[in-house]
Write a structure and sequence with these properties.
Subcellular location: Cleavage furrow; Cytoplasm; Membrane
Distance between the termini: 47 Å
Strand order of the largest sheet: 15-14-13-16-17-20-21-22-23-12-24
Largest sheet: 11 strands, mixed
Structural class: alpha+beta
Cofactor: Ca(2+)
EC number: 3.1.4.11
Number of strands: 32
Shape: globular
Strand content: 15-25%
Catalytic activity: a 1,2-diacyl-sn-glycero-3-phospho-(1D-myo-inositol-4,5-bisphosphate) + H2O = 1D-myo-inositol 1,4,5-trisphosphate + a 1,2-diacyl-sn-glycerol + H(+)
Radius of gyration: 28 Å
Protein name: Phosphoinositide phospholipase C
C-alpha cells in the first residue's frame, strides 16, 4: 500500500482517499486546495480577513492568524460536526446584514469548541467552501477502517519528518513511535532502524520506509487466524472462507456470500481469479462492516415500524436548549441541531414570556440565557428529519401568558405547516396511537389540553380559554426555587395552543389504577427520576403494563444543576418510552443512550421486546421467573488487541498510554456486571491482551454491552481513551473489530479493539 518516499506515500493516500469517493479532479476540492480569503466574524466590530487552505492530506484545514506574531493554525476535518449555509448561526444572524445571506456559512465543531462564522467574497465561493468540505466529510465517513488507519499512520510519519526531506533518521523514527503511542527503549528502536536501513545510509527512504511500515503494522493475531483457516496451498479458498463464516463467525451464509466477499475485498487479482482470499484480502474484509461487532443488517431500519407509537423506546432530550449547566449556561438553537442530528426524537421547550411580546425559551428562575421560541421552531423544522424520517415530539413546558401562547401556536402552525399533526389521523376517534410509519416527517406537540380528543374531530367547538394545572416538571422546578414557591400552580391556557395537542396530552399521574380506569390512551404523564425509579422498584409489573397502553416521560431531578444524568436502563426495563437525558453532557449514561439507539438505522426509535408489549405479560425485571422473556445465555468475550489508541496528553511527547479494557453489561439487576483486563505498559499502538471473560445473561433483549478503554494510572483515576456501546442483540459473534468513540460520542477515526465474541445457550 505504501510506495517510495514520504511525499509520494502521502500523495498516494490522498489520491486513494479522493478517488474512492469520486472526488479526483472535483472543482470544489481543487478550490479548497488552492485556498482563499474569508472573513472571520465574532461581533459587529470584530471582522478579520483570514487565509484558509486545505492541506495536501485533504484532512486538515490551515489558516493564518494576523496577530502581532503571525500564527499558522490548523484543525482537522474530523473535528467538524456539520456545516450551515447562510446566516443561520446565532452569531451571523446577529452581526451581519441580510444582504450577505448567500456569502455566509458556519463551521460547527464537535463538542464544545466554538463555531467558526465565516463570510466569503461572493455566494459562488461560499458554495464552493461548503460543498467541498461536505464532500470531504462524507468521503472520510465512507473510508474503511484500514484506510483510516493507513492515513493516520502516514500523517504521523509526516509530522515526524522534522526537516521535510522525505527521509527518516533514527531520531525521527523515535519521535514517530512516540507520535503513534509506542514507548520503546533505544536499543529496540536502533534494531528496527538497522533492520530497515538496507542502504546503511543512516536514514530510511523509499522502499526502506515501506519495510518499516510493514514491520510496524504487522498483525500477528490476524496471521494466526488466517493460518488456522487457510487450508488451500497457503491461501483461503472460497470453501475455507465459508467454513470460517459458518463455524467461527456463526453467520447464516452460503457459498454465494463467500464468493461475493472475495470479489469485493480481495486485493490480489491472481487470488481473485482462483476464487481465493489472500492474507491482505482477509485483513481488508475484517476491517469492513462485515467484520464489525455491529450487525450490518441493523445499520438500516430493520424493525417493524407499524406498531403503535408507545411500543417503542424513543430517543429523548431534557432541557434541549441548554449547552452546559442548568443555572447559568447558554441557551442556543445549536443545542437543538446537535440533538436532532443525533436522531433525538423528543425535544423539550421551556417557554416563558419574552420582551416585545415574543415568547422565549430558557431555564426559568435561573441565569441561563434566552433564545426566541420562533427561532427554535425554525431550526427544528430545518433539522428534524436530516438523520431520521420518524416523528419528532415537541415537549412544551408552558409558562407563558395567553397572548404569547397564541403567538406560540401561530409559529407552530405557520412554520411547521402540514408537518404538524393538528387533528387525529383518519375520520374516526382513534382508540390507539398511530405508528412511527404513519407519522413519518410529522411533528407531535406534547402539552396541556383543555378538553378530550374527540372534540378535535368537531373542530374543538365551544372551547374557551381556561386554567389548567402546570406540568409536573414545572412544579418540580419551582420546588428548587424559594422565591417561586408562592406562585400559583395553575396557568391559563389559550385554546389555540390546546387545539394542537393531539396524541400527547399531559396529565398528572395519580396511580396505575386511576390511569387504567380514567385516562385515555393519549393522556400521558411525566415522572421525575426519583418517582420513576421508586415505581420501577416497587411496582415494576404495573409500570410495564401501564406503558403497554400509555406513554411515559422520565426527566432528571431538578437537583442535577450540573446537567448530570441518571441511568436510563432501569427505565427502559420498566417499558418507559421517553427517557429524557441531558444530551449536552458527555457521560456513561449518554454512551448507553447512544448505544441503545445505534441500531434500527439510528432512527431514534427502537421496538420494545414483545414481553413489554403483550397485555398478558407478567414480566418483572427484578425477578428471574420463568416465562417467554427468560432466555438465559452465556456470553464469552476474548479481548485480543487494540490498534492505534490516541495519545491523551499530546503536549507531552513522552506521554504514552497504559491501556486496559473493561466490559460492562447493563440490563436487569441480575445481568449487571463489569470485568476488565490487566493494563499494558507504554503501548497504545498495538497492545495485546488475549484475555477471556464469561458473563451470564438472563434477558439478552434488555442487555446493553459497553466496552471502555482507559489509561491506567496508579495515583489517580484512570482516564478514558475510548468507548463503544450497543445492544447485546445487535452483537455479531466471532472475530470482530470494534470502533472507538470519544467521551462525547464522536468516532476516533483510526482506533479500534479486536475481540472474539460468542453468545451461546448454557449447557
Amino acid at each position: 500500500m505504501l510506495h517510495g518516499t514520504l511525499e509520494c506515500t502521502l500523495r498516494v493516500h490522498t489520491d486513494l482517499c479522493m478517488t474512492s469517493a469520486g472526488l479526483e479532479g472535483d472543482p470544489d476540492l481543487q478550490f479548497l486546495l488552492l485556498g482563499g480569503e474569508l472573513i472571520k466574524i465574532r461581533s459587529r466590530s470584530w471582522k478579520k480577513n483570514r487565509f484558509f487552505k486545505l492541506q495536501e492530506d485533504c484532512k486538515t484545514l490551515w489558516y493564518e492568524s494576523h496577530k502581532i506574531f503571525k500564527r499558522k493554525q490548523t484543525f482537522s476535518i474530523d473535528d467538524i460536526d456539520y456545516m450551515r449555509k447562510g446566516r443561520q448561526s446565532e452569531g451571523l444572524n446577529k452581526h451581519t446584514p441580510s444582504s450577505v445571506e448567500g456569502q455566509c456559512f458556519t463551521i460547527i465543531f464537535k463538542g464544545r469548541k466554538k463555531n467558526l462564522d465565516l463570510m466569503a467574497a461572493n455566494e459562488d465561493e461560499a458554495n464552493k467552501w461548503v460543498n467541498g468540505l461536505e464532500k470531504i466529510m462524507s468521503n472520510m465517513l465512507n473510508l474503511s477502517q484500514q484506510q483510516k488507519s493507513e492515513h493516520w499512520i502516514i500523517n504521523c510519519m509526516r509530522k515526524a519528518d522534522k526537516n521535510d526531506d522525505n527521509k527518516m533518521t533514527l531520531k525521527e523514527l523515535k519521535h514517530f513511535l512516540r507520535q503513534v503511542n509506542i514507548e520503546v527503549d533505544d536499543t529496540y528502536a536502533a534494531d528496527i532502524f538497522k533492520q530497515c536501513d538496507k542502504s546503511n545510509s543512516g536514514s530510511l527512504e523509499g522502499s526502506e520506509i515501506k519495510h518499516f511500515y510493514d514491520l510496524l503494522t504487522y498483525r500477528e493475531e490476524i496471521d494466526v487466524i488466517y493460518g488456522q483457516c487457510a487450508h488451500t496451498d497457503g491461501q483461503m479458498s472460497a470453501e475455507d472462507l465459508l467454513n470460517f463464516l459458518l463455524n467461527e463467525q456463526r453467520e447464516q451464509v452460503s457459498m454465494v456470500d463467500a464468493l461475493k466477499l472475495i470479489e469485493k475485498y480481495e486485493v490480489d487479482e491472481t487470488a481473485k481469479q482462483k476464487k481465493c482470499m489472500s492474507k491482505d484480502g482477509f485483513l481488508m474484509y475484517m476491517h469492513q462492516e462485515e467484520g464489525s461487532i455491529l450487525n450490518p443488517a441493523h445499520k438500516q431500519v430493520y424493525q417493524d415500524m407499524h406498531q403503535p407509537l408507545n411500543h417503542y423506546y424513543i430517543s429523548s432530550s431534557h432541557n434541549t436548549y441548554l449547552m452546559a449547566d442548568q443555572l447559568k449556561g447558554p441557551s442556543s438553537t445549536e443545542a437543538y441541531i446537535k440533538a436532532l442530528m443525533k436522531s433525538c426524537r423528543c425535544v423539550e421547550l421551556d417557554c416563558w414570556d419574552g420582551a416585545n411580546g415574543e415568547p422565549v425559551i430558557y431555564h426559568g428562575y435561573t441565569l441561563t440565557s434566552k433564545v426566541l421560541f420562533r427561532d427554535v421552531i425554525k431550526v427544528i423544522k430545518d433539522y428534524a428529519f436530516k438523520t431520521s424520517d420518524y416523528p419528532v415530539i415537541l415537549s412544551l413546558e408552558n409558562h407563558c401568558t395567553v397572548d404569547q401562547q397564541k403567538l406560540m401556536a401561530h409559529y407552530l402552525i405557520s412554520i411547521l405547516g402540514d408537518a404538524l399533526v393538528s387533528k387525529p389521523l383518519g375520520n374516526n376517534m382513534p382508540t390507539n396511537f398511530p405508528s412511527p410509519e404513519d407519522l413519518k416527517q410529522k411533528f407531535l406537540i406534547k402539552g396541556k389540553r383543555l378538553n378530550k380528543l374527540d372534540a378535535a374531530l368537531n373542530n374543538n367547538s365551544f372551547i374557551e380559554e381556561d386554567t389548567v394545572s402546570e406540568e409536573d416538571e414545572a412544579a418540580d422546578c419551582k420546588e428548587n426555587d424559594q422565591k417561586a414557591k408562592t406562585k400559583k400552580s395553575k396557568i391559563k391556557l389559550a385554546k389555540e395552543l390546546s387545539n394542537i395537542v393531539i396524541y400527547c396530552k399531559s396529565v398528572h399521574f395519580s396511580g396505575f389504577e386511576h390511569a387504567k380506569e380514567m385516562q385515555a390512551f393519549y393522556e400521558m404523564s411525566s415522572f421525575k427520576e426519583s418517582k420513576a425509579f421508586h415505581l420501577a422498584e416497587t411496582s415494576a409489573t404495573a409500570y410495564i403494563n401501564h406503558n403497554m397502553d400509555k406513554l411515559s416521560r422520565i426527566y432528571p431531578s431538578g437537583s442535577r444543576t450540573d446537567s448530570s444524568n441518571y441511568n436510563p436502563v432501569p427505565m427502559w426495563n420498566a417499558g418507559c418510552q421517553i427517557v429524557a437525558l441531558n444530551f449536552q453532557t458527555p457521560s456513561k449514561e449518554m454512551h448507553i443512550n447512544q448505544g441503545r439507539f445505534l441500531p434500527n438505522g439510528a432512527s431514534g426509535y427502537i421496538l420494545k421486546p414483545e414481553f413489554q408489549r403483550s397485555l398478558s405479560s407478567q414480566f418483572d425485571p427484578s425477578v428471574l421467573t420463568k416465562g417467554p422473556w427468560l432466555k438465559k445465555k452465556t456470553f464469552n468475550v476474548m479481548v485480543i488487541s487494540a490498534q492505534q489508541l490516541p495519545k491523551l496528553n499530546k503536549d507531552k511527547e513522552n506521554s504514552i498510554v497504559d491501556p486496559l479494557v473493561r466490559m460492562e453489561l447493563y440490563g436487569v439487576p441480575a445481568d449487571n456486571a463489569s470485568k476488565e483486563t490487566h493494563y499494558i505498559n507504554n503501548n497504545g499502538f498495538n497492545p495485546m491482551w488475549n484475555e477471556t471473560f464469561v458473563f451470564d445473561v438472563h434477558f439478552p433483549e434488555l442487555a446493553m454491552l459497553r466496552f471502555v478503554v482507559e489509561d491506567y494510572d496508579t495515583t489517580s483515576q484512570n482516564d478514558l481513551i475510548g468507548q463503544y456501546c450497543l445492544p447485546l442483540t445487535s452483537v455479531q459473534s466471532g472475530y470482530r473489530h470494534i470502533p472507538l468513540l470519544t467521551k462525547r460520542g464522536d468516532l476516533i477515526s483510526s482506533a479500534g479493539l479486536f475481540v472474539h465474541l460468542m453468545l451461546i445457550d448454557p449447557e
